[in-house]
What does this fold into?
Amino acid sequence: MSQPSSTTQPRRFPLLQPILVGLAFVAVNVICYWLLTREPAQAWLADLGSYSYVGGFLITLLGNATVIVPVPYLAVIMAIATQVEYPLLLIIAGAFGSVLGESVAFFVGRSGRGVVEDTPLYQWIQKQMRHPWRAFLVMFGFAAPPNPAFDVVGLSAGALGLPYWLFFTAVFLGRIIRIGLFVVAALPATSLV
It folds into this structure.
């Protein structure tokens, strides 16, 4: 007598995928740190301002895609802001790079739902993320000011299966405010008139 075949097989190693994603994420961060602390990389970061808008996009992408290694992208954005002709384009390019970098946390959350430790902040964020408008406001509110807690928001948004367009829009608008404030702070008062 044969046993009935089941269409769903139990996963043998349910934590393997989140562990592999986490290890890949750590490896990328370690490689970025190693490359950025080398002498030529420091010169490359200084020369990034000559690329202006593309440099702003790249540094915010890198700065927000890495969690373990802090990249001082806001300082680089401020340096680039003094060299560009159209600061608004720098703000948009920086916000776009920033949201794409933060998308790493979103997709890590989507692939491994148990990545974040269960803390009161995480529980509160998850409760708010269950309602689309509150989710938008929470993501926007955490994306605008510089804070390390945004990764929890990105992971939660991915783990709860929120639509990527909602994540992208809220974070993009929040990052326009964040980067805009730093660009405006770097510009001389005469260029704002």
Summary: Residues 87-111 form the longest helix (25 residues).
